[in-house]
Specification:
The protein is of the alpha/beta class. It has three domains: about 5-130, GAF domain (Beta-Lactamase); about 155-335, P-loop containing nucleotide triphosphate hydrolases (Rossmann fold, 3-Layer(aba) Sandwich), CATH 3.40.50.300; about 335-475, Orthogonal Bundle (Helicase, Ruva Protein, domain 3). About 45% of the residues lie in helices and about 15% in strands. The chain contains 16 helices and 16 strands. The protein has helices at about 15-30, 35-50, 110-155, 170-180, 200-205, 225-235, 250-255, 270-280, 310-315, 320-325, 340-355, 365-375, 380-395, 425-440, 450-455, 455-465; strands at about 5-10, 55-60, 75-85, 85-95, 105, 190, 215-220, 235, 250, 260-265, 285, 295, 300-305, 330, 365, 400. Strand 3 (about 75-85) and strand 4 form a beta hairpin. About 30% of the residues are buried. The model is unreliable at about 415-420 (pLDDT under 50). The structure holds adenosine-5'-triphosphate (ATP). Adenosine-5'-triphosphate binds near residues 197, 200, 263, 381 and 382. GO terms for molecular function: ATP binding. Pfam families: AAA_lid_14, Sigma54_activat. Keywords: ATP-binding, Nucleotide-binding, Transcription, Transcription regulation.
Length: about 475
C-alpha cells in the first residue's frame, strides 16, 4: 500500500482534529530543540494520524543510515516533507505496526503539518546557530580579556636591555649571550638564584625579538596548584571537569606567535612535564575535553633557580625535557659574584625611588656603600632594590646615611669569609626597629612593642634613646 492511499481527498477535518492542530501550533512555537519538537509531535499527532510513533529525519540520509531498533520491524506509513529556504530540509516520518494509516486522513492535513513543523524547525535551527555564535563571541571575549590583562602588564613592564644594569665581567658575558639569542626563535633556559633578574632578562629577550609586537605570556609554575596546571597551560572545554563552567584557552594558545615564559619550571609536577615536552616538541596542544589538536607557534623561555641537572639526577625532572629546554642556557650571576655592579644598581634604585617619592637625594654615604659592598645579598638584586627603597623612605636629607641590613644568620645564609659581622648592639637596634614596624610604631598597651618584647615601657623607651632609634626609621603602615 502506498503512502497516498492513507490520504482521503474527500474527508474534511473534524472539530476535534482542528482543536488538536491548534494546540499543536501553540506548543511547537516554544519547542526549544528538535528532540523536544519530536516529543510534542509524538504526543499530539497520534490522535490525528493513528501511528505508533513519528521521527524527524534530516537530509541527506546516507545509504546505511541507522534505523533505530523497533522501527525496522515497523512500517513507515507516511512521510511528510519539511522545507527550509533552500528546499527540502528533511522529513517527518510516521511508523505503525499496521501497514497503513487507518482510517485515512484528510488530504490537506500533511501540507498544514509540514508548514507549521518547518517553521518550528527554522526557529530552532536559527536559535541554535545564534547560541553557537554567542558561545563563539564569549570565547573571543574571554580571549581578548586575557590578552588585555597581559597587554596592561606588558605596557607597565616593557623592559629592554637598557633596563638590565650591570657592567661587571659576568654581566658582560650575559649581554653577549643575549645578543646572540634574542633575534632567533631558540628556546632559552635562564638559570640563577632568586632575584638575579631572570624575568627581567626574559622580557628583554622577548622585546628584542621579532615577536615583540605580541604578548610575552608568563606562567609561574610554582604558583599554580598541580591539578590546575594542565588547564592553565592547555585550556579546557566547558564541562570537561568539575568547575570548568566556561571554555578557557590556555597560555600556550594565548602565546601563539609570541613567547611563553615558563617561570619556576623546576617546580613543574613530573606528570605534567611529559605533556609539556610533547607540546614543545610537536608544537601542538590539546585542550582538556577538546576534540582535536591545535597547532601553536610559541617561543619558549624557561627559568628556574633550582639546579636542574641535580633535579634530573634525583629523578624529579625528566631528562628529555631538560635537554629540550637546555638549548641555550644563560646563567645569571648572583650579586655577591659581581660586587662591581652593586654601586651602579644602588644609585639607580635610589634615583628611581627618590623621584617616585618626590625626594631629592644626591648621594649614598661611604659608610652605607661599604656596608652594601660587604653584604652577601642572598636575595640578590631584588633585595638590594627593596633595601634602597627603604633607605629612600628613611632618608632625612639629601644623603643616604643609614641602611638596615639583616645579619647573615637572620637572612638564612652563612656569612661568607671576610664579611662584616654586626655587633650585639646593632642587632638589638635592628630587632627593636623591626618590632616597632610590626606594631606600627605603637609602644605601650595591648599589641604594643613593649608587650611583644616583654619589656617595661620605660625600659624600651630608654633603649630606643640609647640605640639612637628615631621615629623616621619606623615605617608606619597607614602612611
Ligand atoms: N640587572 C638588573 N638591573 C636592574 N634591575 C634588576 C636587575 N636584575 C634584577 N633586577 C630587578 O630585581 C627584581 C627581581 O628581578 P626578577 O624578578 O627578574 O628576578 P628573578 O631571577 O626572576 O627572581 P625569582 O627567581 O625570584 O623569580 C626586579 O624588580 C628586577 O627589575
Amino acid at each position: 500500500m502506498s503512502h497516498d492511499e492513507a490520504l482521503s481527498p474527500n474527508r474534511q477535518l473534524t472539530a476535534q482534529e482542528m482543536a488538536v492542530l491548534t494546540s499543536l501550533y501553540r506548543q511547537l512555537a516554544t519547542a526549544p530543540s528538535l528532540l523536544a519538537l519530536q516529543q510534542i509531535l509524538n504526543d499530539q499527532l497520534k490522535a490525528l494520524f493513528h501511528f505508533t510513533h513519528c521521527r524527524i529525519s534530516r537530509l541527506p540520509l546516507s545509504a546505511d543510515a541507522h534505523v533505530p531498533a523497533g522501527e525496522a520491524s515497523e512500517h513507515e506509513v507516511l512521510a511528510i516533507a519539511l522545507h527550509d529556504e533552500s528546499g527540502t530540509w528533511g522529513h517527518l516520518r510516521f511508523y505503525s505496526d499496521r501497514e497503513a494509516i487507518s482510517p485515512a486522513i484528510p488530504m490537506a492535513l500533511p501540507d498544514q503539518v509540514s508548514s507549521v513543523v518547518s517553521l518550528a524547525i527554522a526557529n530552532i535551527v536559527s536559535t541554535e546557530k545564534l547560541s553557537r555564535q554567542l558561545e563563539e563571541i564569549k570565547h573571543y571575549q574571554s580571549q581578548l580579556e586575557e590578552q588585555n590583562a597581559y597587554l596592561l602588564e606588558e605596557a607597565k613592564e616593557g623592559f629592554s636591555y637598557d633596563d638590565i644594569i650591570g657592567s661587571s665581567g659576568p654581566m658582560q658575558r650575559v649581554f653577549q649571550l643575549l645578543s646572540q639569542v634574542s633575534f632567533t626563535n631558540s628556546t632559552v633556559l635562564l638559570l640563577g638564584e632568586t632575584g638575579t633578574g631572570k624575568e627581567l632578562v626574559a622580557r628583554a629577550i622577548h622585546n628584542s625579538s621579532a615577536r615583540k609586537d605580541r604578548l610575552m605570556v608568563r606562567v609561574n609554575c610554582a604558583a599554580i596548584p598541580a591539578h590546575l596546571i594542565e588547564s592553565e597551560l592547555f585550556g579546557h572545554e566547558k564541562g570537561s571537569f568539575t568547575g570548568a563552567f566556561e571554555r578557557r584557552i590556555g597560555k600556550f594558545e594565548l602565546a601563539n606567535q609570541a613567547t611563553l615564559f615558563l617561570d619556576e619550571i623546576g617546580e613543574m609536577p613530573l606528570d605534567m612535564q611529559a605533556k609539556l615536552l610533547r607540546a614543545i616538541q610537536e608544537r601542538e596542544i590539546e585542550r582538556i575535553g577538546g576534540k582535536g589538536v591545535i597547532k601553536v607557534d610559541v617561543r619558549i623561555i624557561a627559568a628556574t633557580n633550582r639546579n636542574l641537572l641535580e633535579e634530573v639526577q634525583q629523578g624529579r625532572f625528566r631528562s628529555d625535557l631538560f635537554y629540550r629546554l637546555h638549548v641555550f642556557p644563560i646563567t645569571l650571576p648572583p650579586l655577591r659574584e659581581r660586587t662591581g655592579d652593586i654601586s651602579l644598581l644602588a644609585k639607580q634604585f635610589v634615583g628611581r625611588f627618590a623621584k617616585n617619592n618626590g625626594k631629592s637625594i644626591s648621594r649614598i654615604s661611604s659608610n652605607v656603600m661599604k656596608a652594601l659592598l660587604a653584604y652577601p645579598w642572598p636575595g640578590n638584586v631584588r633585595e638590594l632594590e627593596h633595601q634602597m627603597e627603604r633607605c629612600v623612605l628613611l632618608a632625612r636629607d639629601h644623603v643616604i646615611r643609614d641602611v638596615l641590613l639583616p645579619s647573615p644568620t637572620q637572612s638564612g645564609h652563612a656569612p661568607a669569609a671576610g664579611i662584616y659581622t654586626k655587633t650585639h648592639e646593632e642587632n638589638e637596634r635592628e630587632y627593636i626597629i623591626r618590632v616597632l614596624n610590626q606594631c606600627n610604631g605603637k609602644i605601650y598597651g595591648p599589641g604594643g612593642a613593649a608587650q611583644l618584647l616583654n619589656l617595661k615601657v620605660g625600659t624600651l623607651n630608654s633603649k630606643i634613646k640609647k640605640l639612637g632609634i628615631s621615629k623616621e626609621q619606623i615605617i608606619l603602615r597607614n602612611h
